[in-house]
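Notes to self, Calsyntenin-2:
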Amino acid sequence: MQLLGLPFGLFWLFWSHSSAIGGKVNKHKPWIETSYHGVITENMDTVLLDPPLVALDKDAPVPYAGEICAFKIYGQDAPFEAVVLNRTSGEGVLRASSPVDCESQKEYTFIIQAYDCGAGPGGADWKKSHKAVVHIQVNDVNEFSPVFREPLYKASLTEGKIYDSILQVEAWDQDCSPQYSQICNYEIVTAGTPFAIDRNGNIRNTERLSFEKQQSYQITVTAFDCGQKRAKKDVAVHIDVKPVCKPGWQGWNKRVDYEPGTGSRPLFPKMRLETCEGPLSGVKVLVELQTSHIGKGCDRETYSEKSLQKLCGAASGSTDLLPAPSPSANWTASLLSDSGRDSDLIYRFAGRQAANVPDHVVPQNLTDQFTVATWMKHGPSPGLRAEKETILCNSDKTEMNRHHYSLYVHNCRLVFLLRRDFIQVDAFRPAEFHWKLEQICDKEWHYYVINVEFPAVTLFVDGVTYEPYLVTDDWPIHTSKIDTQLTVGACWQGGEVTPPRFTQYFRGSLSGLTIRPGRIETQKVISCLQACKEGLDINSLESLAKDIKFHFNPAQSVLVVEGEDVDSVNTAMTKVSYINSRQFPTPGLRRLRITTSVQCFGEDSCLSIPDMKAVVMVLQPSEPRITITGSNRLVRPAGDLRAPLGVAPFKELHITSTIMKGDSFSGHQRAGIMETMHNLDYCDVLVIGEELNPRKESLELRHSALLGKHLDATNSTSGISIYGVDSISHYEQALRQVRYRNWRPASLSERRFRLTCSELNGRYTSNEFNMEVSLLHQSAPVEHVNHMAANPQYMRPVHHPLMIHTFNSHMSEAAPPAATVVIVVCIAALVVIVVIGVYRIHATHQEETRDDDDEAKEPEEDWDNSALSITVNPMENLKGLQALSKVVKEEGRTEEEEEEDEEQVGGMSSAESDYSDDEVEEEDRMEVKERNHEGKLEWDSSSMKY
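result:
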């Protein structure tokens, strides 16, 4: 602007000078701009203002009044100050009074005013300008690095797919400006990975990944802000590769080990069903325990059939037609047996094996009620026209071929034939009963029981009742005097063929074939006899969801679980367990099979769940060691053997059992409490050598010894068998009461017995305990001169008189001169023997005077003190020795004649035999007394000094 052709500055000076001359000294206020804009970089103190800070005063050039002395700032906590650089020109500068931080405050706004210097040096009458607004912006410095929001990133992807974004990582910066606070770039630090990342942090895969090749990847990612400052700490990203979702069970083990005695063991504690997020309306799971290869279909008790029947409370009187081969049951010895699996006695018939049951074993009193039972494993019969396969047959032994009753298989049908005799009415009667069942030819073990309540016949297969689908009537059989033959494995054809032979052979396996006449078996007993000791179980039933339904088959080998919710079914499956209640289970594997069906809304089946297979491995149990101990020899006088009760060979018997514990060390066994550890099922006392002679000896066990125990016994000339599942202590008590009696012990040299005991029908057997019973002789026979070498047991004082049996007959002959020395030595030895004999005779007489009660016992026939004659010098009185030898020989002949007379007596009962023994003993006493009075050679012991 120009005034009168003069510039504005000259005009201002002129105006202010003329005003100062013509008026007061400080007439005008300072003047500044109305607003300022400034910029300051954080952590700096200089502010760049636009426009510059300049104050003007019209009083210039008047000193003081026209000069600028200060700038004052008005604002709350504004960290700035204004400084006058030139008072005359009014120039100033704006500075930061304290550090400025953009991250704390990006902008400041405050008021500034200029002050002149007043009218004089004292600053009086100063004036201030109007208020101007100052806006200051704080410029940012890139002082912070990017930081990731998460310490670790995780993601998963399905194999075989390309993803646009698997996951997104995110970093941030504390700087205040957009330039430095924004993240402009991300970068994958790990080299060679099949992944890429964009500027927004999205990670994607660059190729299709395979679960089989690599299941997971670990990569490192960093970030940069827009000022290209890198993150101080990189971040890890974990990416899992999942297989393509396949519906099925996950989290299960293919093998589960089961330790015997541990109760119930969960099979699938962490198993769950993967349905790939499909909407389901129901799940049904079938768990099957396959144990067909274990014994007779599963782990059952392998006690003998009679023991099992007693355990299950079956009525007595059944006949076992397939017992274990033994001297008393030898008709099964020719059959093929398979007892290698847990001692479960099984007979295999290959179409050419059969056995005739002895007549004394065959039940003769079959009435309108009886039961036939057996375990059977059978497959389809070979050939297009299958023949009958006979399990059990009772037919004519000779002349004719009539079948009275039989049980056979024909074309996978079980047929029971029962031909009754004519009684009163000559009419058709039920004769054949047919059952057509899958079990007959499925090559698995099943328990068959036929209950006959004529005319009704009922079949039980594994405890389930089946009525016959076909009943055939026939004429009764006319009575005849032809004997019948009971056979197993085929049918006997004894008439119309030459020679008689077996026919209709059975092909399969049998076990426990029994007939019980007079009674039928109850459902409870049948279920007990075929019950498995192993199976499936469910723990914590109360913890299952309400919508869960489950069902077991009778053998608990099949479990069905149903539910509407997958989680509930998963929880139920974790409770499924395996249990084996046998104390000594059969070791080995059991197969598991799980079949699953899934239902969807409105559809029958929407997902296909693969079947699952696993095994339960039953570990080897701690096996017991059964040990029989006691005295191995029993020496008793003849009187004890002839006594009514005889002697007890096993009176000092002890049976113990030890088990090697799993946690034992150094090879030591830790003894268990045997009476509570387990039971025995039989003990056999067998006669070694010749069988017992019923005319002079017996091995007995009174029935009272078995009372109160679960024991039975059978007796024969071969020994005694005690059987039944009972405790070791009860077996000890029974064996200690076994008595051996011999009412003609004169000829007894020794009688030997062997005792063995068993658990689980021979699976665990004891040691063989041998017992020898012998007669107590008072001295050894004098057949040799040197009696000093005799067994010490014959040198002890006894209560019976002594007698020398025999002398060598050649002693009466003249000795040759060359043997003179030998004869002298022999005579000296004989003198010593005589002295010892005199002493023992004297001791015996003294004991006889003390023991008058012993007179009731019969003195031994081998020794008689009254007939003893001893000569000090036998060479001087050889005639006396010859007479003594003659007496001894006559007594020996008398005993032999008596034994021959006794052997001719037969057919006596035990009571008659005892009575005859008493008579014989009395006669023996009379004969001995007569011989004593006839010609006894007496020794006067009173004249002998010793």
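- Residues 1-23, 663-676, 779-818, 844-946 have pLDDT under 50 and may be disordered.
- The chain has five domains: 31-139, 147-242, 248-292+534-618, 305-530, 624-662+673-776.
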